[in-house]
Structure formats: C-alpha cells, structure tokens
Amino acid sequence: MPSAEQETMMLALSIPSPPPQWAQFQLGPLTVHTYALCILSGIIAASLITSYRLGRRGVDRGIVLDVVLWAVPLGIVCARFYHVFTHVGDYFFPGANLWNVFAIWDGGNALYGSLLGGALGVSIACRRAGLRFWAFADALAPALLVAQSLGRFGNYFNHELFGLPTTLPWGLQIEATNPKFPAGMPPGTLFHPLFLYEIIWNLAGVAVILLVERRFQLQWGRVLALYLIWYGLGRSWLEAIRIDPTSDGWLGIPANVWASFVAVAIGFTLFVVQTRRHPGAEPSPYLRPRPEVAAFEPRSPEPVAAEASSES
After folding, report:
1. Has residue 15 been placed in a domain?
2. Is residue 120 within a helix (H) or strand (E), and if so which, with residue range?
3. How many independent structural domains does the chain possess?
C-alpha cells in the first residue's frame, strides 16, 4: 500500500477528469454535448483525409460527401444498437427508461457497430458512384484511426472508458460519486486512462499503416486489412483491462474482445486473399471508365461568301 505522501504525489501527477459541466453547454435553447462534438470532429477529419487521399488518385472529391451521407447515419445507428445489445443489463431492467436506448449523447457508441453500418453505407454509395469499394476503403482506413482518436476525447469528457486501478503517474482520476466508479474501491483510486491509451495506439497506427502502404504499394483492400489487424489487437488488450461498464460476453470474455478477435481474423484473411487474387495494382479507383468531357472549343465562323458587286 502506498504511503500518504506517495498517494499525494500520485494525485498531483495524475490525470484529472474534467469538470462535469464540460460534458455539455447551452447554445441558446439547444444543449450541445461535448461527446457529440468530438464525434463530429472525427467525421470531418476522416472526410477531409479520405477526400485528399482519393483526390491524389484522380477521384472527384465531391464523391466523399456522397459517401458520408450514406455511411455516417448508418454507422451511428448501428453503433448505438450494437452498444445497447451488448450492454442489455444497462438498458433493460424493471423500471428502466427505454428512451435511454436512444440517448446517444450520453455516450455508448460501439466502434464495431459503426464499422458494420458504415461499411454498408460505403458499399451502397460506392456502387451508386461507380467507385471501387476497396479503393475507398483503403483511402478511409488511416482516416478512421484519426477519427476514432478524436472521438475518444468524448469518453474523457463523459468520465468513462477507464481500466484497472493503477499507481502509475498518469492514472486517471474518477470521482467516487460517478455511477461508473467500481463499488468497494476507496475514493481517490486512480485508473488506467484507456481513452488515452487508445488515442496513442490509433495515432501510432496511422504512422505505421501509411509507412507500410507506401513501402509496399498496398491496394485492393489490404490497407483496410492492416487497419482491422492493428485496431483489433489494440482494442482486445484495452477491453481486457477495462472495468467501467463492459459489454456482455460469452465464456467470461466481453463481447468487444470477441469482436476484436474477429476483426483481426478478418484482417489477416482479407490481406492474404486479396494478395493472391490481385497481385498487381488497381487499374483505376473507378469500376468502369469515366466518360470524358470534351474540352470546349469555340466553333469557327462559317465562311461568308463574298458578294461580288459591279458598278456600271
């Protein structure tokens, strides 16, 4: 057990949770939730990065907005319902307010659910635009990690996503009155800041994926495969030490850990299969040749016959 002096030093060096008032603020009659702003900033960042990466391959940058209009709503809906149905006990119990199922602003948006819904939206939008799904997915993959990093700040403002108790200097302070504070633990206990660990892991993943992509000229969905492997490995470890309300599970393993294992398996399988099926480069990010728009050329004036005139 640390001494009183050591405890004081640990608290002085630890990460304080922000004041609860920072979780939301009033903008006229509207209540703006910081968590929602973090998610929105991630969506904007991912859209800009993906647009830039596709633009370098000659894709119209406006296509990204078309994809966003399909992928984001489906991603948010699936993220919320994935979270709810992997935390059934938190939402369905005697006397529960069932409207909380839809209270997305209070936190609880499962990344794996958003991937499923977002993938469906991307598939629909790419088909409508005549764009290769794998080309878009590869452009999006590192941008997803940036978006997830920004979104994790929302967990910080909501005082959630923390792990086992720790005596490390960067332990996270969680107030004992927080409903997520583990029962039986003394006030002042510090916890692993899982939101911060994931931010660091994700940003490191951006650097690694971009380096590998450039070194080996990866296409045909293999960048997406690296994303699934990288994120799945990191998330499986974080979920294993998480103690704030975790997902329901099977065989004593939380659902999010199982989902992480599945993500890693899909990533490895996708990488191997696509490497064998497509050893060369993508011919074009488009499914079919784009119609070329002829440049405007002014028409030459019709020759005007000279009128011969004679004077007598």
Report:
1. no
2. helix 111-129
3. 1
DSSP 253-298: EEHHHHHHHHHHHHHHHHHHHHHHH--S--S-SBSSPPPPPPPP-P
Q: Which domain holds residue 198?
A: 21-165+188-277
Q: What angle do CA 251, 253, 259 make, to 5 degrees?
A: 115
Report the run of H or E that residue 150 belongs to, with start and end.
Answer: helix 133-157
In the Cβ-directed half-sphere of 257, how many Cα atoms lie within 13 Å? 15
The Cα–Cα gap between 142 and 145 comes to 5
Structure tokens at 58: 């000659």
Answer yes or no: are the C-beta atoms of 260 and 238 closer than 8 Å: no
Q: pTM score, two decimals?
A: 0.85
Binding residues: 152
105 falls in which pLDDT band (50, 70, 90)? low
Cβ(158)–Cβ(129) under 8 Å? Answer: no
Q: Which residue has the tokens 């635009």?
A: 129
- 194-224 pLDDT tens trace: 999 999 999 999 999 999 999 999 999 999 9
